Amino acid sequence: MSKTTMQSLARVKPRGRCKGDEPTHRKTSPASRTLVLLAVLALMSAAGFSPHAFAGRPANSQSASLKTVTVVIRGFKFDPETVTVNQGDTVVWKNEDIVPHTATEHVAKPAFDSGTIQVGEMWRYVARNKGTYNYTCTFHPNMEGKLIVQ
User: pTM surpassing 0.85?
Assistant: First the structure.
């Protein structure tokens, strides 16, 4: 090969990546990734997805046979006070009161604990295990309810 040919080959950039080359994709900032994650979560929430929506349902059950029961929190009371559901059914506590509340099983290690349900918000629980669960509002212990899972 002539000296001129070798010099022109030396000037040609190799195709593809070589060791030490910077990646061709752009790095995103943590703020951008957070915004994308929040947008995805907002879309899932708007579409009615819930992390507990399908937990605890028997594998052979038909979704048509499952039901949702709503307990309204109003006037510092759970209404209805006693709810009976089948395994796999969903119980929704909806706070229509003037202050935040909780729906927490009244034992040392509760099977369910809503955390704070803000005014105008709701919390869903899928009844997984048969039994009778006495629950209360941890902020207002005089509020009591009962969940019976058959």
Answer: no
Each residue of 99-125: pLDDT tens digit? 999 999 999 999 999 999 999 999 999
Report residue 94 CA to chain centroid gap. 17
**141 prior amide bond cis, ω within 30:** no
Q: Which residue has the tokens 């990546």?
A: 17
Higher pLDDT, 87 or 38: 87
All domains of the chain in start order, with CATH: 67-149 (2.60.40.420)
Which DSSP string corresponds to 97-114?
SSS-B--EESSSS-S-B-
52 Cβ contact list (under 8 Å, min separation 6): 124, 125, 126
